[in-house]
Every structure is written in C-alpha cells, then in structure tokens.
Amino acid sequence: ETGVTQTPRHLVMGMTNKKSLKCEQHLGHNAMYWYKQSAKKPLELMFVYSLEERVENNSVPSRFSPECPNSSHLFLHLHTLQPEDSALYLCASSQDRAESSGNTIYFGEGSWLTVV
Amino acid sequence: GQNIDQPTEMTATEGAIVQINCTYQTSGFNGLFWYQQHAGEAPTFLSYNVLDGLEEKGRFSSFLSRSKGYSYLLLKELQMKDSASYLCAVSDSNYQLIWGAGTKLIIKP
C-alpha cells in the first residue's frame, strides 16, 4: 500500500466510449502526476498538477483530459481513444513539484487500459 | 537529447549477487533514483543518489559516478521475491524525471 489508490484497475473501452480514471492520494502531498507506461518503454509523463494547478502538459493528445478538483484527487478523462493508447496508466504523488531527495514520487498500482 | 540506458533483461541465481547498470545523458543533474516494480504492481522507491559514491541499504546498494554519467544498483543474497523490473530515473536541471525503460530481473532457483 503506497498511499495512492487508483480505480478502476482494469478497463476495456471502445474507441467511441467516454470513461474516466480516478486517483486518490492519502499522503497529504501537493503534487500529483499521470504517467503512461507501455511495454519496454520508459515512463511517459503526461500531466503534472501542483497545488491543484496544472503545471505541465507534455504534448498529450486532447483525447486525454485531466482534472484535479483538490490536492487529493486526480482524474483522467478519456474519449475517442485509439488502440495505441492501450497501456498502463500510473498516477503518482510527491510532497512538492520538484523531484529532489525530499520529494520521492509515490505511485499507485495503475489502471490497465485496453482500447478495442 | 536526453537518454537513459539500462539493460532490458538480466537473469541471476537465488543467493547470488547481481549488478544492474544505468548510464545517462541529461541536461543537468539533480539526482538519480532507482525504483522496483513487481509485475502488475506500483513502482516503489529504492534509492536516491545525488553525490558520488555508494549508498547501502540492507541487501541493496546504489552507486553513482556523475563524471561518468553512470550508476548501478547492486543486489546481494538474491531472493525469489527480487524478481521484478528495476527502473532508473534522473532528475534533470528542471527537476523533471527522465526515465529508463527498466531492467527485468529474473531470479532462478
């Protein structure tokens, strides 16, 4: 148990569907992240929120839409996805935005997404 | 460009020692992390190095040479539960984490 909870753990969706991934952190952290993990590829940072404000968007397609209603919750809204978007989506949090020694990133167990 | 290299897969024997290497080329350096990720689970923090040298934590040690852009994770007295992927990540000048693709470690009895 890392203190970061993601739901659902598994999701299968059609290309025309709309779904959302949910993340909740119980660590009192100020920064939250969405990462994409594909087989044999490095983790790809998608979005970063610090104190509920989006600070980074690494050129992610608009079919992925994040939402951070408060410092404990993070959503990733999905619509009209493509089969190549199938991957493990990891939520993470850290005390503050900067990744220094005092800001270890804590990951959730991920949401396995399959787009059919 | 920024790049992290680590072997894709390694195999070792239970009770033995294994060294997983990581080389990096980044714009600036603010520390190097090692994470462990069991199949189907969250990556979990193992170690952080920002100064040259060896950091020991139980059976696991991590080494850093900033001049060589090189780190390794050393696992001693291997146990079956050490079978996992090991992720190397470097914090660059903007404190953005640059990740390697991970090394899958297979432990055989």
The interface involving the most residues is between:
A-B, 20 and 25 residues
Estimate the mean pLDDT confidence of chain A. Answer: 91
Distance between the ends of chain A: 31 Å
Low-confidence runs of at least 5 consecutive residues of chain B: none
Task: Give the topology string of chain B: H per helix, E per strand.
Answer: EEEEEEEEEEE
- Mind summarizing the main beta sheet of chain B? 6 strands, mixed
- The backbone outline of chain A, from C-alpha atoms, is globular
Count of extended strands of chain A? 11
Structural notes for this entry:
The complex is a heterodimer of chains A (116) and B (109). Chain A starts with a strand and ends with a strand. Chain A has no helices and eleven strands. Chain A has strands spanning 4-7, 10-13, 18-25, 31-37, 44-50, 53-57, 64-70, 73-79, 87-94, 106-107, 111-115. In chain A, strands 2, 4, 5, 6, 9, 10 and 11 form a seven-stranded mixed sheet that branches. Chain A has a four-stranded antiparallel sheet with strand order 1-3-8-7, with no helix packed on it. Chain A has 116 residues and is mainly beta. With 109 residues, chain B is an all-beta fold. Chain B is 0% helix and 57% strand. Chain B has no helices and eleven strands. In chain B, strands 2, 4, 5, 9, 10 and 11 form a six-stranded mixed sheet that branches. Chain B has a five-stranded antiparallel sheet with strand order 1-3-8-7-6, with no helix packed on it. The model of chain B has no long low-confidence stretch (mean pLDDT 95).
